[in-house]
Write a structure and sequence with these properties.
The protein is an alpha/beta fold. Helix content is 39%, strand content 22%. The strands form 2 sheets. Strands 1, 2, 3, 4, 5, 6, 7, 8 and 9 form a 9-stranded mixed β-sheet that branches. It has a 6-stranded mixed β-sheet with strand order 14-13-10-11-12-15, with helices on both faces. Helix 9 crosses helix 14. The longest helix has 19 residues. The radius of gyration is 26 Å and the shape is elongated. The chain starts with a strand and ends with a strand. The mean pLDDT is 94. Bound molecules: adenosine-5'-triphosphate (ATP) and magnesium ion.
């Protein structure tokens, strides 16, 4: 039996005249993610996109698995595509959905008839398909309110599509529809989650990681690659920029008060990141900060960090979340097990014993004035290396 995948594109439907731009971006993202699986035709109409394999080798299980991660898709169904004729539809529904029909205790049938020339109206289609199923699966009962299985028959232009329960998609907006943003990514639990969340809102990620060799190891950097590779299964390819941070950290350690070390360091991260973001056409910075999580994330500390960013918004999607809520997402998206590998991040190098939790901006500015800020930033930017992180399923 010929099979296709049918997608509902949720929130996109709300976008009025922009809808086509959103749909086109979504199709582009899907083509990119599925290109190695063989020839697939993509057609869209009425908030639905149909993926039709054009050769027999297309692995629909794999396609389905990847599609579940792509933002902009509200629901996914794998369907049988059959001739628009009740004498074909009735046996096909029983045969195609037999496993699900055997397991279910209750079911209902829904029909959608976008081809208005089809001789039966939707309630008649439901009645006939329902009757056929009841005559073949004697254990089943109809429950129109809360059925175990909803059998859907959609009569469209070329085929009748038959499917069981729709699987929830990743939701959100297609990556690329909201522009580019720069994610400050450490090897921790939070920042990959922050990146995933903003990617879900349609932002294309560029990642920035600060490394302090020899205090931080090559393995710590490889951990960031692995984290981003996992995030890229959702977000698509990510360009990673690794910024050498050792000299900046050593200068701060040697010349600034210990209790302000972290906050000054974070201000340098923001300065370097804003410069990179602007060069890369990014419209925002993204961090994994959450109020009160550590000393550098008190309201006052975040205020001092943010004060150095001249003209970009800083997105902090985790700002009001508890650690367990972040961990729950990181488990769901598959970054947690990588994040807990024990390699050190540059933030754990030279950490002060008693960091100032309520720093005052003028104290911080005065303390860092002894440093040649511009040339330190320039040196770090000049030493930045680029790495392409590709999804690689
Ligand atoms: P995470 O789990 O993301 O490491 P954290 O709780 O350890 O978060 P901090 O170390 O204070 O928090 O960092 C706060 C944010 O600063 C991170 O979420 C990330 O966005 C950014 N950041 C921290 N370290 C780095 C780094 N080495 N490179 C790039 N960004 C970083
Ligand atoms: Mg960290």
């Amino acid at each position: 039996m010929k099979e296709i995948i049918l997608l509902k594109n949720g929130e996109l439907a709300l976008k009025g005249l922009n809808r086509h731009t959103f749909e086109n971006q979504l199709i582009k993202n899907m083509k990119f993610r599925l290109h190695d699986l063989g020839k697939i035709r993509y057609t869209s109409s009425q908030s639905t996109i149909i993926l039709e394999p054009l050769d027999e080798n297309v692995d629909l299980n794999e396609a389905f698995r990847r599609l579940k991660l792509i933002f902009g898709i509200a629901g996914i169904s794998r369907c049988a595509a059959v001739e628009k004729d009740m004498s074909v539809i009735l046996p096909a529904a029983c045969e195609y959905l037999k496993d699900e029909l055997m397991i279910a205790k209750t079911f209902k049938v829904e029909a959608k008839r976008s081809d208005k020339k089809f001789p039966l109206k939707s309630p008649e289609i439901c009645r006939e398909v329902g009757g056929e199923i009841l005559s073949k699966f004697h254990h089943l009962k109809v429950d129109v309110h809360n059925p175990d299985l909803t059998v859907t028959v959609e009569i469209r232009d070329n085929y009748a599509y038959i499917h069981g329960n729709q699987v929830k998609g990743a939701g959100g907006m297609p990556v690329g529809t909201a522009g580019n943003a720069a994610l400050l990514v450490s090897g921790g639990i939070d920042s990959p989650v922050a990146g995933w969340m903003m990617s879900k809102r349609g932002l294309q990620l560029c990642a920035i990681h600060f490394a302090s060799p020899p205090y931080t190891s090559q393995r710590a950097e490889m951990k960031v690659h692995s984290l981003l590779r996992q995030v890229s299964k959702y977000s698509g390819d990510i360009l990673l920029l690794v910024v050498p941070f050792t000299h900046i950290q050593e200068e701060i350690k040697d010349k600034c008060p210990e209790e302000l070390f972290t906050i000054i360091m974070r201000r340098f991260m923001m300065r370097c990141s804003e410069a990179i973001a602007k060069e890369r056409n990014c419209g925002a910075l993204i961090t994994g900060e959450s109020v009160g999580q550590v000393a550098s994330q008190t309201m006052q500390a975040i205020g001092c960090t943010e004060a150095v960013v001249e003209s970009l918004p800083v997105f902090r999607p985790l700002i009001g979340m508890d650690k367990d809520e972040v961990i729950e997402i990181s488990r769901k998206i598959g970054t947690f097990d990588i994040s807990i590998l024990p390699y050190e991040d540059c933030c754990t190098v030279f950490t002060p014993k008693h960091p100032r939790t309520r720093p005052k901006l003028h104290d911080v500015e005065a303390a860092e004035n002894v440093l040649d800020i511009d040339s330190l930033v320039k040196e770090a930017l000049d030493g930045t290396k680029k790495i392409s992180i590709t999804t690689g399923d």
